[in-house]
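Predict both folds.
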Amino acid sequence: MDIESSGEGEHLWLLISKKDQNTSWVAGILAKLAGIKRNDVGYCGMKDRFAITTQWFSLHVPGRDLDLDTLIHNDFTILRTARHNKKLRRGMHQGNRFKIVLREFEVEEKSFDDRMKLISRHGVPNYFGEQRFGHQGNNLHEVQKLIMADKLKGNRHGTGLYLSAARSWLFNLVLARHIDNADGSLDRLQDYTGPLWGRGRSSADRNAASVEEQVLKDWQDWCYALEHAGLKQERRNLILRSDSVLYDWIEPNQLSLEFSLSRGCFATALLREIAQLSRPSYVPI
């Protein structure tokens, strides 16, 4: 955790370990067990459901000393507690640490070593992962329905998940076009950013703005909806870099990976580039 607790305050912080449970589900259970409103539970980011994950939650319990026994639940384990005067909010953390085991991973070790050197040198495309878009892209289908009904209005209206999906999809489209234009050369894109669409003037330079205009001309209804949903335009790096990726062959065809990523970046973006090794037509970065 890269946020230091103050040791006192109205918020009880809980470091929780969970398996096969998503963040929102655990937050709802904590609210019920603590007898507080769901909005009084905070957390920094969303963790994958199908994994063993550890993250901090905060409970707003002014003037109360909760008996931790009342928070025991089969879906998670409380590892640590702390007091703080602030609620945990999305984006307060700096990044995430991952440990992933790839099984039945058949590849020549030298080819893998060469691939990892390329990834370390050039980075990988900073795509939003498929999980942002829901099973079979259902979140994107829901975005279109909400836009057509003029109901994509933001978190207060329960559509925050779909706002994120819409922004992420547009960003991925722009990123894909940049890679096509650069003939796959990531070095040419190191200093480029792409749009997280919203209201306000873009800070993109002339070349980047031209690409975005071309790509998004057929998505103006989505852009318009995001502009009027209370979001401000932001920028996101096109290339994702991890300072150190540690890997170890546990046994033949079984690989352990450990790495850190900045907040908002997806481990699947890195795994996607490693997986290119299995393609017969694979071309190095």
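Second protein follows, with its predicted structure tokens after the sequence.
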Amino acid sequence: MSIPYWRLSGLYFFYFASVGAYVPYWSLYLKDSGFDHAEIGQLSALMLSTKIIAPNFMGWLADHTGKSMRLIRLASLLAAIIFVGFLFVEQYLWFAVVTLGFSFFWNAVLPQFEAVTLAHLKSESYRYSRIRLWGSVGFILTVLSLGWLFEKQPIQGLEYCLLWLLILSALTTFITPETSTDKVQNSSISVLPLLKKPEVWVFITVNVLVQISHAPYYVFYSIYLEHHQYASTLIGGLWALGVIAEIVLFIYMKSMLKRFSLRVILLCSLILATGRWLMIGWFAEELWVLVLAQLLHAATFGGTHVVAIHFVHQYFGNRHQGKGQALYNSLSFGIGGVIGSLGSGYYWNGFGGHVVFSIASSCCALAFMLAYFWIGRKSKQHELVLG
């Protein structure tokens, strides 16, 4: 059976197009709506907190029913429907309620779609990066278009842009084919023996630290640049530049995997992440430094994410792929994102962006030390074997 390349790529495109509207501009939208930094951090943490539960619940359902795409379609539709609530609420409490409902289903989609993509690829998992890069293309087109738009129009129009992107993403799920899975085999073999291995939790801890470090960037980077008098178009351009660098990495990842082990890619990515947050935190007035820091997004997000996807695919196998992808997303993006969002929100006013980004840098330095001593020291050239 041939790989449905364009249908898989299309869902990545529209899903990450909505991410391109949400991540760079939602904090500016909240600020314009009258929320302070602490409240923005709290709402961002609520958004990420559903990643702790939703992907695991969806992963359990997918592995037991073998109907991943049916669940993805349902979750995508419910996310779009609940998002309509943002058009009618203004108070913090109701904003928080709608955020929880919308994000529960939105955050449940991607981990299962990652599992569906890898199931379609089978032994050709090296092609993952070439499919995933279309998500980055969608992100870039959205972030640049909205940056230009919000130079001319109020940012309050963001909610309508996001709603349309969510609807398009939901519609795309209906042309993406289901994969065949053996639900009896999946449900009869426990995942617990894998979760008892300490090296798995070291790997998860590394990714939690990476996501803690990314939280100030995702939540406050646009506000930080606006504070330094950068225009919306330039802010959008810097976001897009980071994702362009990520696309280049995805294009050449197959060649990189032939030359370097996943361990080497991970360690190099963590070193570069440590430097990137210091550059943003202490040299925000220098545009050339920000440009260089954005180019490092290829490593800090792209490199660490590709390594994690390959690790989950190798370690959890086809039997528990849904649970494995859910565990990676819920613990790293969920718990890591919540801790980072709450922490950066509470400490931003008192200490400033330079201190918050320095703490982010320290998290990556700690992640590097854990990865260096625990992850893949005995691995072969193209494998990631923990121990």
